[in-house]
């Protein structure tokens, strides 16, 4: 651990909620239990992500929450945008009707074996929901509460989900316990990121820390964008097909093609790895902004305000033709988790 006392302070929210209540509620009494601090692994704060604004809405389909992050500084790990999220602590409250929380710090689980099982679960989530009978976001959430162990979650006495499918829950939990410990998190896989809400802790209320599914960002194009932050520009004159690059090193993971057709341009993607593509369930995973030479930015533009295209289409995307594009994809591209 870098600093046990610092970790205690930063993650105190995870250790204080004592009232048995749903994490959607708006109010809860809190206490402390110092002996739980030793269970906290070595979190790493993401650079320039210590004053983030977090907006939380209920999802209840692909995940527990939809989470929007903004005010993130330039870093090589995570950008402003929309993410899927989960409750980190089953008995702590949070508002889920578009509530906004400022001053939040983000912590990475990368390179920490204590989070192997959690990251394995996040990467297997879609597979479980598609293949395990009766599995939904509820069973995934219950397994998260079980394996995080910040506060013991007894599935037999859970007061959160009345209709939890116990067979599906145990099938998923058994697989995570059997295979998750040796899981190796690689670039391109889903990484758990904790949004620490302890800044909103008071003597009478606490706010749920949110677990975020962070995927890699990919940019289409062969021209390195200007500014300190990494990004790539698709310059139309350089060819209809250019590389799709992901991660802070700009690793090529496939191609993006922008082809003129009847006065419009059609965008398509290919991925090098079988099954590669955008993260399923994520809001507007493809965002495109067209530029002229005069409007091309001198730094990486935030993708939230993009207007040329924002949506769920991943092929045959029809857009106006421009000499330059910023093509932003929330990508999940390297090898799938194998049991």
Please explain how this structure is put together:
This protein has 339 residues and is an alpha+beta fold. The protein has two domains: 4-214, no CATH class; 217-332, no CATH class. It is 14% helix and 31% strand. The chain contains four helices and 18 strands. Strands 8, 9, 10, 11, 12, 13, 14, 15, 16, 17 and 18 form an eleven-stranded antiparallel sheet that branches. Strands 2-3-4-7-6-5 form a six-stranded antiparallel barrel. Helix 2 (116-131) packs antiparallel against helix 3 (137-148), helix 2 (116-131) crosses helix 4 and helix 3 (137-148) crosses helix 4 (166-179). The longest helix is centred in the middle third of the chain and has 16 residues, at 116-131. The protein starts with a helix and ends in a 7-residue tail after the last strand. Residues 1-21 and 25-39 have low confidence and may be disordered.
Task: Write the SSE topology.
Blueprint: H1 4-10, E1 44-45, E2 52-58, E3 65-70, E4 81-87, E5 97-108, H2 116-131, H3 137-148, H4 166-179, E6 191-196, E7 210-214, E8 216-220, E9 223-224, E10 232-235, E11 241-246, E12 251-261, E13 264-271, E14 277-278, E15 286-291, E16 309-311, E17 317-319, E18 324-332
Antiparallel strand pairs: 1-5, 2-3, 2-5, 3-4, 4-7, 5-6, 6-7, 8-11, 8-18, 9-10, 10-18, 11-12, 12-13, 13-17, 14-18, 15-16, 15-18
Helix pairs in contact: 2-3, 2-4, 3-4
